[in-house]
Design goal:
single chain; about 375 residues; mainly beta; six-stranded mixed sheet; 33 strands
Length: about 375
Amino acid sequence: MQHVFLMSASGLTTGAAEYYPLKDWNGTALGLGNGTNKKRLRAGTLSYFTIETAAAAGVGKSWTFSLYKNGVVTATVLTISGGSQTQATQTQGINVADSDYFEWEVTASGTPTAARAFFGCIYEPAAGGVYVLTFADADAPTAGATEFSRIPNGGWTATEAERQAPFPHACTIKEIHAAVVTAPGAGKTLTLTARVAGADTLATVSISETSISGSTIGLSVAVTAAQLLSLSSVLTAAATAAAVQITLVIQPTVDNEAVWMGGTANNLAASVQYHSIPDGERAEETTTEGLKQQAVPAVKTNYLTVRKFYVRMNTVSNSNDVWTVRNNAGTGIEFTILAGANDGSNTADDLTLTSYDKINLRVDASTADNVG
């Protein structure tokens, strides 16, 4: 089954080369091989790469995007130059082995206009009927504490309710894999557990002593549509705390379904604001829609359909907030979270996207200080 990977970078700069993970990131560049970049995949293929910038590079100037596999550059290199803002390739068949990770290198020529960048591609696991959620939390969990993070990311906190997110469809968690930048240390252990509806599941993995990774496979953890998911961390006191990378292998109940998930970084303002999709890390907002429109890669079936849309807020809303997933024509799936409520959904309407359509999230809040 096809899985559309989307990612955005908050702002390219014209200094030294910058590196970004393949998917689910909204932020500044990281060093080549940074632990947060190592969002490891299962065996499969990558294809249909799309790059877009929010502003043109300028006459005689360019951005060059080179795809790295396990720290080594591949033949996939895309350049955006002059007045262009988009570049795509139909190149197929970049093979992915278990635990491979990919990064984008971005280099500037001629001092191009600094701009947000959007990355997209198609990932097809070799094992049929599954997809992966692979994400990282750049914040390290606290030693000697039990903390919680959102799936796919939300920063660690002691309050689970602040990190629970509704999962859009029914599925089964088949595997969980984890890696850290630095080992916990002698006699120390980090245990990470996927939780459903506030309860531990068997989707748990531990990393101990000098190890920097761990896996649990052969699972059958059932999740029903709209159940609340979170990730718990238990790190031994005095252990070395480090950024965590997680991969979940998921089998959807309905064939060919996969999910996009993300979260906002800030409280809602009393205005119309826009977010990228999925921004698997915490996303900052803007009032300029064009800065958050993400182009969908060339889809092999020539379209994909967004079928279910859920939002959960950390606290109850202060006003009637209208949430919309929309394309570049302004067509979308919409619902309202009423004042006094903290969640909402639309599972009845569909939004069909063809190759290179753009998609983003629009939020219209009439009162400030709501927590998204």
